Amino acid sequence: MTIWINLVQVLQLVAAIAMIGLVLVQHGKGADMGASFGSGASGSLFGATGSANFLSRSTAVCATVFFICTLLLALLSNSQSTARATGGGSVLDRAAAAASAPVAASAVPAPAASAVGGIPTK
C-alpha cells in the first residue's frame, strides 16, 4: 500500500511543478491585444492564439491530474489509517472517547491555603 501512496505522491508533485511552470509561461490578458496587431506572433511557435489554447489546455490537464492524485491520496491514507486503528474509524471519535474518561481525584492537587490577596502563608 505504501508503494501506491509513494507513486501517487510523485505523480502529484510532478503535476504540481508542471502546472506552476505552465502558469508562469502563459501571457496575461493584456498581451493578447499586442499579439492581435501582429507583435510577436511571427516569432511564436504556436502563432498568435495557438499558444494560449495549448497552454491553457495543458494547465487544465495538469490540474485534473493534481486533483485526482489528491483524492487518491485521501482515500488511500484513510483506508490505511482505518486498517491500523483499533477503535473507531475517525480521529474525532477517538478524541471524544479520551476526553470523556474520568479524572482520578488524587490526580488533581488541592489548592494551597492562602491569606488575603491570594498570597500563600507560611
Automatic annotation (TrEMBL):
Pfam families: SecG. It is found in: Cell membrane. It is a multi-pass membrane protein. Keywords: Cell membrane, Membrane, Protein transport, Translocation, Transmembrane, Transmembrane helix, Transport. It comes from the Bacteria. The keyword tRNA-binding does not apply. The chain crosses the membrane at residues 54-76. Involved in protein export. Participates in an early event of protein translocation. Belongs to the SecG family. PANTHER family: PROTEIN-EXPORT MEMBRANE PROTEIN SECG. This is Protein-export membrane protein SecG.
